[in-house]
Design a protein that fits this description.
The chain has an eight-stranded mixed sheet with strand order 1-2-4-3-5-6-7-8, sandwiched between helices. By secondary structure, the protein is α/β, with parallel strands linked by helices. It has two domains: 221 residues, 3-Layer(aba) Sandwich (Rossmann fold); 140 residues, no CATH class. The radius of gyration is 24 Å and the shape is globular. A hairpin with a 2-residue loop joins strand 1 and strand 2.
Length: 402
């Protein structure tokens, strides 16, 4: 066995110096290169923006808007994009996510649009494209209305327009959890005429829980707002699983590999639904983020969120018909919707397609019907989104196939 080498003798009169770690400065947002999704933060007046980014500054810039309202920005939102050809940013909407505070939850659609503009200016971008899913589609249209000169292309997935059919679909599914909604003092509405009054009662129940302290809610699993929150989240999971199951059952004409992928997706969603049912039976208290999400959704649905675009369709149609440096073969508006979507009715996309076709002669709107439900990670939906954002348009009008 070799003896260890002796240490060199110390020089008298000179203290031994220990090597110091050199902290590398964090790259600015304008130079951020992310070959894989990575988080980012940006301080703006009033609060801090955060989210995920993928790609390099030389790629086509995109902003990705998550659904909800009250959802969370996740790295999976950037799955349709290529790190070589895109520069995609997925911001966390204020008042949402695990780190949101009650004060930050007092937002308005104009505030969300202002946050998007702050991010665009921080990146030094003149124009970018917008991908919005579900509630994010409504927010994308609101952004186009206020800043049409900053938007090059728009892709809407499973568009939510605030129509009564979407709201009724959620509240009608709440009837499956009738014992729990009854415990909270909010019996599920039996028809659409009862929706406004029911949403008002739900807001009062959830507002009382939001104002309570965390310790009080943690020690009382039988809080009425907890029953309502669990039933609300369970209804959302039921609808998402229902769409994936319908896509799987109608996949006889699909190739075998796609049928296997559809079955695997449904199995994962069904497992999540069973876990949620077990947590409801055990009366597991929802997390603070879940309480904020349901309270925010009840508030927005109760105030008819479609008012965010009230009177904005002429401005939106003007943007659709305006001239851009993009080639004529690239649609300005791409609508992607699942054929079996049980969360947002496919009639929303059909209505938007008819509206856009009337305003632009039908030449700048493209509609894609995916063999899927509502969620973006379902196989056919993900493939349709990748195809929608695959053509990257540079400032000179050339196209790069991702």
């Amino acid at each position: 066995m070799r003896a260890p080498a002796p240490h060199p003798p110390k020089t008298p009169g000179k203290p031994e110096q220990t090597p110091q770690k050199v902290c590398q400065p964090r790259p600015t947002l304008t130079a951020l290169n992310a070959p894989r999704p990575q988080p980012w933060r940006l301080d703006v007046p009033g609060h801090t923006l955060s989210g995920w980014v993928l790609g390099q500054p030389s790629g086509e810039p995109w902003v990705v808007l998550h659904g909800g309202p009250g959802g969370a920005a996740q790295a999976g939102l950037l799955a349709p994009f290529s790190a070589q050809h895109h520069w995609a940013w997925a911001p966390q909407q204020r008042g949402t996510g695990p780190l949101a505070t009650r004060r930050a939850g007092r937002w308005h659609v104009d505030a969300l649009v202002a946050d998007m503009e702050a991010l665009r200016h921080a990146l030094g971008l003149t124009q970018w494209s917008v991908l919005g899913g579900s509630w994010g589609g409504l927010l994308a249209l609101a952004y186009v209305r206020q800043h049409p000169q900053a938007v090059r292309r728009v892709v809407l997935r499973g568009a939510f327009t605030g129509a009564g059919a979407d709201v009724w679909g959620l509240l009608h599914t709440l009837g499956a959890a009738r014992p729990h909604t009854a415990t909270s003092g909010c019996h599920a509405p039996r028809n659409r005429l009862q929706m406004p009054a029911w949403l008002a009662r739900a807001q009062r129940v959830l507002r009382n829980a939001t104002g309570a302290t965390g310790a009080a809610l943690a020690t009382s699993h039988a809080h009425p707002a907890d029953h309502l929150t669990r039933a609300w989240l369970l209804a959302e999971q039921r609808l998402a699983t229902q769409g994936a199951k319908a896509a799987m059952r109608h996949s006889s004409a699909c190739p075998p590999a796609q049928r296997v992928a559809l079955r695997r997706t449904w199995a994962q969603l069904n497992h999540g639904l069973r876990v949620a049912l077990a947590q409801r039976r055990l009366q597991r208290p929802p997390t603070p983020a879940q309480r904020r999400k349901v309270a925010l959704q009840a508030r927005v649905l109760g105030r008819h969120c479609c008012r965010a675009l009230h009177g904005g369709w002429p401005d939106w149609q003007a943007w659709l018909a305006s001239d851009t440096p993009s080639p004529a073969s690239v649609p300005r508006l791409t609508l992607v919707h699942g054929q079996f979507d049980a969360v947002c009715t496919p009639a929303n996309t059909q209505w938007l397609a008819d509206l856009g076709g009337n305003g632009a002669g039908g030449t700048k709107v493209q509609t894609t019907w995916a063999h899927s439900g509502h969620l973006a990670h379902e196989p056919h939906m993900l493939a349709a989104l990748r195809a929608a954002v695959a053509v990257a348009v540079t400032a000179t009008g050339t196209k790069v196939q991702a």
